[in-house]
Design a protein that fits this description.
The protein is of the alpha+beta class. Helix content is 32%, strand content 21%. It contains 19 helices and 29 strands. A 7-stranded mixed beta sheet has the order 23-24-26-25-27-29-28, with helices on both faces. Strand 12 and strand 13 form a beta hairpin. The longest helix is centred in the middle third of the chain and has 28 residues. It is globular.
Length: 670
């Protein structure tokens, strides 16, 4: 980060990790290792030039911890760099070159955001993804460290500061991490004196000429630099005298004090929990005998769960249900976590709580849960079949290829993946991304348009009404990327029709690793036969408002597909008692025929008696006269390819849909 009166964007990034066991040991007992990552407001390079002996931020933290007799000694390593933003740390190679070789840490502090907002392209779209990528790398390289993102310090206007901190809070929430709010403490201290925590750094050439001789002892690199208010009496009225908001030593004492307090609370809480922990299950050895070190769920889209050892040495993984509002219905089926164990360790995991309830009746998913995917790095995935056991039980056997292994029900598509993809296509002249509302937790919802709004035909797709089902996201991405390829075929398609897509309906559920319902207990693929409740289902209310505005403009979609995953993979053609039902069924049968002809789809459609009240497919037909269907994608096996499903297969399917849609409108004349 640049220093000066005209460069006010700096970043202190701290991600904090609270361990159960210290990473290193000193002769007099366990020693904690603490890492600080960030930019100029972490390293404090100007303070180091003026007062090289410190104390600097790392010294303040270490000294405050040492003053507490019940806390272990700490080593604090400051790896802040002037001008650094997360993307630069990762893309420049510095992370791999300078951070990874430092060895294991117990605590990792990171605070980013100020440089990012000033210099990162498409900041709001890219910054959360950058942050998530950094967290993922830290988890892989420092598996013993827990991670806590921190807010930025007061630096810009309160409104701009809050815009950055809001994104940081979102990242912390999505990654299931606690947040250390240093902004509030720093702002409270500034009320005692608005400029007492920042140094003064001012160009000598802008100092009145008569004063330049006597300020010579304070000049560094052509600027007058003082750490405190000693020159304010002379220069406070100069424009920009207080403009540089980087912390001075007093500011670093505030940051160090708040950080040390957080650490002290965390360390003591760990000690107290260890002292009162009940005996481990599964015999005296408990989990240690299984070879498992940890099941990590502290990241975006991870599934809520708890685990224990079984007497036979298996690890019982208890998935947590999410519940439907005012209903006995419940769902547990989202699987996404990271195994931490020594390389070559053989582990057996048994999944529990598969006894879901749907429509008031038991609806176990044990028979449907036949395969998961695993990945050593969270990027390259391969399928692993599961073993069906008596009762509502399924087992997974794995051998660790390295120190960690990700496990997922299907190849994940996270909120950060969506944000990165939208940023990559947003500038294409054929694309328009329109905000349409917010989720229950305030996440933005958008409809993506590909093509000209005045095209003769319009198609709508929605994915991820149920958070555990990522297949629809990959299909939509494959469809859009095929239409944006720019070849003659894509051009012909977009002359005929325009595609609209709401790619992730249940963003809150995806971020939090839920299975079926939104955070207010509503199924977003139900109740479409009536107006959406704006309080309980704001996601559906937003889509409904968008659709009705389209209809008022004479742009009603001619075809709508609601994309899901299940163990069957059928095209759900609902048959409610509506005028023109035979015509609707004939059109859906045309769609089914074209899917069979031009894609790997072979599963077929539902029976003639099928009627699924309240789904988007049926609700849009009933209320708006739109030909719509729910399209399930088989999560266990793609019969037409004789292979396990993957992101590549679903994107291939999406890439095959443009031809299907084009020929559909050859036959169907809305």
């Amino acid at each position: 980060m640049r220093h000066g009166t005209r460069w006010r964007y700096g970043l202190l990034v701290a991600i904090l990790a609270v361990p159960a066991v210290p990473a290193a040991a000193a002769a007099d007992g366990p020693r904690l290792r603490v890492l600080l990552l960030g930019d100029s407001t972490t390293i404090g390079s100007v303070c180091r030039q003026v007062e090289p002996k410190g104390p600097h931020l790392e010294d303040v933290i270490r000294s405050l911890l040492a003053a507490e007799p019940d806390l272990p000694p700490a080593e604090v390593v400051n790896q802040g760099r002037d001008g650094e933003l997360i993307h630069g740390l990762l893309s420049s190679g510095r992370y791999d070159r300078e951070i990874v070789p430092l060895g294991l840490f117990d605590y990792i502090f990171i605070r980013y955001g100020l440089n990012d907002v000033a210099r990162r392209e498409a900041f709001e779209a890219n910054f959360p993804g950058d942050y998530a990528e950094l967290i993922g790398r830290l988890r892989r390289n420092f598996p013993g460290a827990a991670i806590v993102p921190m807010t930025i310090i007061p630096y810009m206007t309160p409104e701009r500061d809050e815009a950055v901190n809001w994104l940081i809070r979102r990242v912390a929430e999505a990654e299931h991490l606690p947040l250390l709010d240093v902004y509030s403490r720093y702002a409270a201290e500034l009320k005692r004196g608005p400029d007492m925590l920042n140094y003064r750094r001012y160009p000598l050439e802008e100092i009145p000429e008569r004063h330049r001789a006597w300020v010579a002892p304070f000049v560094r690199d052509g600027k007058v630099v003082v750490m405190d208010n000693r020159l304010d009496a002379h220069f406070r009225d100069l424009p920009g005298w207080f403009a540089d908001r980087h912390p001075n030593p007093a500011g670093y004492h505030v940051l160090g004090d708040e950080t040390a307090k957080f650490l002290a609370r965390s360390i003591r809480a760990k000690k107290a929990a260890a002292a009162t922990a009940p005996p481990t299950s599964g015999g005296p050895a408990g989990l240690a005998a299984t070879g498992l070190e940890f099941l990590d769920t502290g990241f975006e889209n991870a599934s809520p769960l708890w685990y224990e050892a079984a007497p036979d040495g298996a690890i019982l993984v208890h998935l947590l249900y999410d519940h439907e509002r005012s209903s006995p219905n419940r769902a547990a089926g989202h699987i996404h976590f990271r195994i931490v164990a020594k390389p070559s360790t053989a582990l057996t995991l048994e999944f529990r709580n598969l006894d879901n309830v749907w429509n008031g009746r038991p609806a176990s998913i044990a028979d449907e849960l036949k395969v998961v995917v695993v990945s050593p790095d969270g990027k390259a995935w391969k399928p692993v079949p599961l073993e069906r056991l008596p009762g509502d039980r399924v087992r997974l056997a794995v051998t660790m290829p390295g120190p960690s292994l990700y496990v997922a029900r299907a190849e994940p598509y996270r909120l950060s993946d969506l944000e990165g993809w939208l940023a990559s296509i947003a500038k294409n002249p054929l694309v328009e991304v329109t905000p349409v509302g917010r989720t229950a937790e305030g996440r933005g919802l958008e409809v993506v348009r590909v093509g000209r709004p005045d095209a003769p035909h319009r198609v709508f797709l929605r994915a991820r009404a149920h958070p555990w089902e990522p297949g629809g996201n990959w299909v939509i991405q494959g469809l859009v990327e095929r239409l944006l390829r720019g070849d003659d075929e894509a051009t012909r398609y977009l002359e005929r029709y325009c595609v609209y897509a709401l790619p992730m309906a249940n963003k809150d559920g995806v971020a939090r690793g839920r299975t079926r319902f939104n955070l207010r207990g509503k199924d977003l693929n139900r109740d479409w036969d009536r107006p959406a409740d704006p309080d309980l289902a704001p996601e559906n209310h937003a889509l409904e408002a968008w659709l009705e505005a389209m209809i008022r403009r004479g742009q009603k979609p001619h075809l709508a597909l609601e994309l899901h995953n299940d163990g069957g993979g059928l095209l759900h053609i609902s048959r409610p008692p509506v005028p023109g039902l035979e015509r609707h069924v004939a059109r859906m049968k045309t769609l089914e025929s074209l899917l069979r002809k031009h894609t790997w789809f072979t599963e077929g459609s539902t029976s003639e008696s099928f009627h699924n009240a309240g789904t988007l497919g049926e609700g849009w037909l009933l209320r708006y006269g739109i030909d719509a269907a729910v399209h399930e994608l088989n999560v266990n096996r793609i019969a037409g390819l004789d292979d396990y499903p993957s992101a590549a297969h679903w994107m291939l399917y999406g890439g095959q849909l443009p031809r299907v849609i084009s020929e559909y409108f050859d036959v169907v004349k809305p």
